[in-house]
Write a structure and sequence with these properties.
InterPro entries: FAS1_dom_sf, Plant_FLA. This protein has about 220 residues and is α+β, with helices and mostly antiparallel strands. The chain is built from 8 helices and 7 strands; from the N terminus they run ααααβααβαβββββα. The structure holds 2-acetamido-2-deoxy-beta-D-glucopyranose. 2-acetamido-2-deoxy-beta-D-glucopyranose (NAG) binds near residues 133, 143, 146 and 149.
């Protein structure tokens, strides 16, 4: 009965193969996300959401296997909105990291500073990174490489570990060589500012992440439809 047992083996491996293919397909489907939909019920980020759509950066982000978006609330998006179209796309793309990060994951990194690839890394390896740095007090900052890290991580807006996260930062992060017209009187050198005036109460970044993960595990549903 050698023949039939090898037939059985062949059938069994065919079944295993089919299961593997199905598993791969469904995990690909699960990884799908829609960043605009994730921002849809967050009116505070309407302007940034519009910019993501207008520049088609949202479409590019949705194609990624994993992504982390750094967003600013409407009152801080004015400078971005004023950028000419050719500068707007790179500026918005600079806010999309091509891996999943949340404060816990950032905190777990061995180094306190790292250059994290953005969507721009597809076209420019050197320009396509943001500098992430954790300060002595544990607060997390982002900035263009070579420029001071001035955009402080404020909170997790939405997250679906470990495929996509959206985090609020305290100011836009522009690629090196691009700058916004800054209102007079605010033309600081962009140092890491200790002042948290005007910001929401600063929770520990890891606490925010734990909270966001909890929410995500309850609310998480694959982008259906
Ligand atoms: C990243 O930012 C930190 C803090 O501002 C700075 O010390 C470091 O030199 C920066 N790294 C790069 C590559 O720009």
């Amino acid at each position: 009965m050698r023949g039939s047992s090898s037939l059985q083996t062949a059938m069994a491996s065919k079944i295993v193969l089919t299961l593997l293919v199905l598993a791969a397909a469904s995990s690909a489907a699960l990884a799908a996300f829609d960043v605009i939909q994730m921002l849809a019920d967050k009116p505070k980020y309407t302007a940034f959401s519009k910019l993501l759509q207008q520049t088609k950066v949202a479409d590019e982000a949705n194609q990624l296997r994993a992504a982390s978006l750094l967003v600013v609330p409407d009152k801080l998006a004015k400078g971005l909105e004023a950028l000419p179209a050719d500068k707007l796309r790179p500026a918005i793309a600079n806010h999309v990291l091509v891996s999943y990060f949340d404060p816990i994951k950032l905190d777990e990194m061995k180094t306190r500073t790292a250059l994290l690839p953005t969507l721009l890394s597809n076209t420019d390896k050197k320009l396509g990174v943001v500098n992430y740095t954790r300060a002595d007090d544990g607060q997390m900052y982002f900035g263009a490489p070579g420029a001071p890290c001035a955009a402080k991580l404020i909170k997790v807006v939405a997250a679906r570990p470990y495929s996509v996260s959206i985090m609020e930062v305290s100011e836009p992060i522009l690629p090196a060589g691009l700058s916004l017209v800054v209102a007079p009187g605010r033309r600081g050198k962009g140092k890491v500012k200790p002042s948290t005036a005007g910001l929401e109460e600063s929770k520990k970044p890891t606490a925010m992440a734990a909270e966001a993960r909890e929410k995500a595990s309850v609310a998480s549903s694959p982008a259906s439809s």
